Amino acid sequence: MSFLTRRSKRRETQYSDDLRLASYPPPYPDGWYRLFRSKSLGRGKARYLECLGRALVVWRSEDADEVFAMSAFCPHLGANLAGGHVRNDRIECPFHGWQFTGDGRAASVPYSDTVPTRVATESFPVQEVHGQIFMYHRGDGARQQAGEEVPYPVPRIPEVDDGTFVFRGHYEAGRSRMHIIEPIENAADSGHFGHLHNRLTVPWTQFPIPRAAIEYTTRLDFDAARGSYSMPLLVETVFNVGGRRLERTRIKTRVMFSGVGSIMNLRITLPTGGVVEIVQTYLPIGPLDQQVAFHWFAERNVPRLLVWGAVGGWVSQWRNDVRIWEEKGFMAPPMLSRDDGPVMRLRGWYRQFFPELAASPREARP
Ligand code: FES
Ligand SMILES: [Fe+2]
Fold first, then answer.
1. Is 190 strand, coil or helix?
2. Where residue 186 sits, what CATH number does that domain have?
3. Which end of the chain is more exposed for a tag (fewer CB within 10 A), N or C?
4. Which residues line ligand 1 (CB under 6 A)?
5. Three-class SS state of 62
6. What is the Å distance from ligand 2's center to 321 Cα?
7. Atom of ligand 1 nearest to the CA of 74
8. Which domain holds residue 218?
9. Considering the entire predicted model, what is its pTM?
10. What is the residue with the minimal CA distance to atom 3 of ligand 1?
11. What is the distance of C-alpha 180 from the center of its chain?
């Protein structure tokens, strides 16, 4: 069978994107989203970015090293502001040379003394944390402003702030054809760990290690999540080789979902001591199109091989999920067995990030 025939056959067996999308909650819930690495936006530079159903210009001021995000369409006559120039802390449109401040207001019109200041174009709260740029998005469609209040901050890692942990690597994992809701849904789905994630593989790959399996215990900490914008998932794994459980391989991981899971902090406590913290992020470029990135931190003295193994082990298992996520729909309500995890309870918790659903009846999705 040729490569082309295999490909077309696979397509025939996939749900179409339209059918998949119709089954899901809205695609862009409330929350902080990671846009890109701080390093990729130098002083005085502007970048164009399409995500969350918006066209954005993101720029860094020349002098104060501040980052701004706003609608890329110039509010004057619609040119793309990302094609303009940064002048100190303003962005200048390439079409007629109007200048705008980071809150979306016009600051100067080169050929006129009257600057329309009553209305501003849409701008967004931005935070730069641990070498990444994040933007806050509201799902209710209300017009946003850079200085608006946000319900929670981008999570920080105290050990990075105090210098105990250092940056140890990053992996831009490209795009996945999945909905933003899948990673957090996965957390309540205790039944899939033993089935989909049971094979131990060489880190970063899908090559199985013969006779080796992973056993899981998982628990969502609803008490800690009450009244909060983050949800902890506690995962314990232990390797089983040839039918023998190897206690010294026991690893404890706390996965903290911020918001609906656009930012996930995975704190892995290694059996040898030492901690690796991975920050995994999802940015919806489109409703079923996520840009995924990983960056990670650890103490300087955690051996490179252990860090590679911890991160690569997570990435290998994440790929198993992605294979499923890229071809699935969303069941509301799902058919559950008594021994499934707290899927409906978790949906009740994360509903807070979908203001579009707030007015709909309880039984509506999710
Ligand atoms: S379109 Fe931007 S200044 Fe006119
Ligand atoms: Fe999974």
1. helix
2. 3.90.380.10
3. N
4. 74, 76-79, 93, 95-96, 98
5. coil
6. 5
7. 2
8. 160-352
9. 0.93
10. 96
11. 8
